[in-house]
Specification:
It is built from 19 helices and nine strands. The chain has 497 residues and is of the alpha/beta class. Helix 17 runs antiparallel to helix 18.
């Protein structure tokens, strides 16, 4: 029985129950109906006129406010805008906030890619890999509670994955008045996770999802996969060199930490969230090996300082390059409070065995790896242990047209999404030796062509036969151009996830 048929059958069986309000919140139901019927509710107007200028059509969508149009050199149009969202989709009467999004307009006759980046919004024109592949439009959304898309005062209990999915659903539903060709969704890292969560709650909003380097943590008490990853990644020589350099940061703690404190004082840093500069320094030292494999390649092992001969300057510079001297300050962590809150309440956070450092640690490393340690103490946190298992089950039992791309040497890929018997037309690819920047273009040629063909098929640009033919004849993925520089920069930006 196909997933689509199962969904139809379940819907048929649920209709009598829904009529009595037995299984769904009335607020969620009303919100769904209102968003999906946006075009019909407002009748025809500038937003529905295919001959009108895109700026006029966008501005005519109820709830949309255009804040800026930025020029491009490629014939695209690019807008920064806000969309009015409920603070709580289940209880819309509690108020609204303005959520930022951007629109890169290519043409009404092109597919549209919805980019859930999971963090704050990049505000310069750029294209994700799927947007380049389909030569399409791109709508990018700022995740709720990343500033400035944050209600004031902030009720952090409304920052979860279901609220974020509902944000995406309402915006996509509104913009389908303008863009009526196929839609795809995409995102990398936390954005790849967000694109999966969006599909779980609104599986039919888009024709397919391409999720890059998206970790999956349904069992937060089992971290053996991360420990195993660091025992086997790369070569024994590279692992030994990294571990020795990491250990040396703690051996020379008396000298290097004094420098760390002075540099943070000069930068105006405070450490109320983590507690003390000593805790912040140790957390940074614990992070360096993870950060290396997340952002570097095995070939970069040659650049890791040799612990026995490295000068303090060399070791400190490497520490800064991996973890950032001010990276654990209140000022730096504040940019990512929304992520750490999600990790502490739904996503979970990894840790792994560092017993080779035990004699040099001042604190319980599990405590320093706890997401709660990075959330300001005044924000209450309660972990929902059902959230991630629910997502995991859905992907395995009902997920359709989802593609996951991982890096073979990326620590976040140690706990990936797995497909199940109910997953249909879905795929998992791994870039050999790849890091957290892995994508379709970096796959082996045959797999890259196969994945590209599938993206084009989902976008309505080719049927299954054409996709199979394309997969046999690898094609060149469009190269990065002037429009893509900002997107490339964001992919390389050092973030917690």
């Amino acid at each position: 029985m196909t997933t689509a048929l199962r969904r139809l059958l379940v819907s048929t069986l649920l209709i009598p129950l829904l009529a009595f309000g037995g299984l769904v919140s009335p607020a969620f139901a009303a919100d769904d109906q209102g968003a999906s019927a946006a075009g019909a509710a407002h009748g025809r107007g500038p937003a529905d006129d295919p001959n009108a200028d895109i700026k006029d059509r966008l501005a005519a969508i109820p709830g949309v406010t255009i804040t800026e149009e930025k020029p491009t050199t490629t014939g695209h149009r690019y807008f920064i805008a806000t969309y009015t969202q409920p603070i709580d989709h289940a209880r819309p009467w509690l108020g609204t906030f303005q959520q930022r999004f951007s629109l890169l307009h290519r043409g009404y006759d092109r597919p549209t890619v919805f980019y859930t980046n999971g963090y704050t919004l990049g505000t310069n024109p750029s294209r994700t890999e799927p947007t380049r592949l389909v030569d399409g439009n791109q709508v990018s959304i700022e995740y709720r509670f990343f500033t400035p898309s944050r209600p004031e005062p902030a009720d952090w209990s409304k920052a979860g994955i279901r609220q974020g999915a509902a944000d995406s659903h309402r915006l996509v539903s509104a913009l389908k008045r303008i863009y009526q060709q196929e839609w795809l969704s995409t995102g990398a890292s936390k954005g790849g996770m967000s694109s999966t969560y969006y599909r779980r709650f609104y599986p039919d909003d888009v024709a397919g999802t391409i999720a890059y380097v998206a970790p999956n943590n349904p069992d937060v008490s089992d971290y053996s996969a991360y420990t195993e990853f660091f025992r086997t990644v790369g070569t024994p020589e590279c692992r030994a060199r990294l571990n020795a350099a990491q250990r040396e940061l703690l051996v020379r703690r008396d000298r290097l930490e004094a420098r760390y404190i002075a540099d943070n004082k000069a930068a105006g840093s405070t450490f109320n969230t983590l507690g003390t500069p000593d805790r912040a320094y140790e957390a940074g030292a614990l992070d360096v090996v993870w950060a290396f494999w997340q952002y570097s390649l095995e070939a970069d092992c040659a650049k890791v300082p040799v612990a026995a001969t490295a000068t303090d300057d060399e070791l400190y510079a490497w520490f800064d390059a991996q973890s950032g001297i001010t990276g654990n300050s209140d000022q730096s962590l504040a940019k990512y409070t929304a992520y750490y809150y999600q990790a502490a309440t739904e996503l979970g956070a990894p840790f792994f065995d560092v017993s080779y450092l035990k004699d040099l640690l001042h604190y319980d490393y599990k405590d320093l790896y706890s997401a709660r340690a990075y959330v300001p103490k005044e924000i209450p946190v309660t972990f929902n242990r059902y959230a991630m298992p629910d997502i995991d089950r859905w992907v395995k039992r009902e997920g359709e047209r989802i593609m996951y791309v991982y890096g073979g040497n990326d620590p976040w890929g140690a706990k990936p999404f797995h497909l199940g018997r109910g997953s249909e037309d879905s795929y998992v690819y791994t870039v050999p030796g790849g890091n957290h920047g892995s994508n379709i273009s970096k796959l082996p040629a045959e797999q890259s062509a196969e994945a590209t063909a599938k993206v084009l098929e989902w976008a309505g640009l080719g049927d299954q036969d054409a996709a199979r033919s394309l997969a046999k004849s690898p094609q060149q993925i469009p190269a990065f151009g002037p429009l893509d520089v900002e997107g490339q920069r964001l992919e390389q930006e050092r973030r917690p996830l």
